[in-house]
Write a structure and sequence with these properties.
The chain has 40 residues and is mainly α. The protein has one helix and no strands. The protein is rod-shaped, with a radius of gyration of 17 Å.
């Protein structure tokens, strides 16, 4: 059974996807916080 080789391109794609996900979560939290009049 051949082991799956991990390529640097996969790391870059995951890195970019992670950054995008973080921005989306931060944006969602900001919107929810604004509508809930949260100080935090």
């Amino acid at each position: 059974m051949k082991l799956w080789k991990w390529k640097p391109e996969y790391t870059a794609i995951l890195f970019i996807a992670g950054i995008c996900a973080n921005f989306l979560i931060a944006l969602l939290n900001g919107i929810l916080g604004y509508f809930n009049s949260s100080v935090w």
